[in-house]
Amino acid sequence: MTSIKTYIDRNRDRFLEELFELIRIPSVSAKQENKPDMIRAAEFLKDSLEKAASLFRDYFLSIAPRGVKVKVEYLYGGEAYVSPLDTPEYQAAALAMEESFHKKPIPVRSGGSIPIV
After folding, report:
1. Contacts by 80-89 with C-beta closer than 8 Å and gap 24+?
2. What is the pLDDT of residue 77?
3. In this structure, are 57 and 94 located in the same domain?
4. Mean pLDDT for each 10-residue chunk of the chain (117 residues)?
5. Least CB-packed of 5, 16, 31, 75 within 10 Å?
């Protein structure tokens, strides 16, 4: 645990700058003209997660005892996607949600862990 805290302390400024870089991107908007920024924010997060996965893999490879084979597989690979709100598919889904829950859905553009969300 001490080495993790030391790593966090040593990299605090970098972690904060990466967070600030992300939150500077106007990533939530219902306006079509802001779509490129929303995609840029999603790509930033995707790249950050891929980097974390590589660090994870490299760390476990480095600590594996001699003779132990380490295999790391990426189990997720969905591309970033922003669904338009004016398509027949979205409208049908929104209507189904409203009819089921008796409340009009509010698109929050938060995504999920399943590539089709």
Report:
1. 80/39, 80/42, 80/43, 80/45, 80/46, 81/42, 81/115, 82/35, 82/38, 82/39, 82/42, 82/109, 84/32, 85/30
2. 65
3. no
4. 82 91 80 85 87 88 91 74 85 90 84 52
5. 75
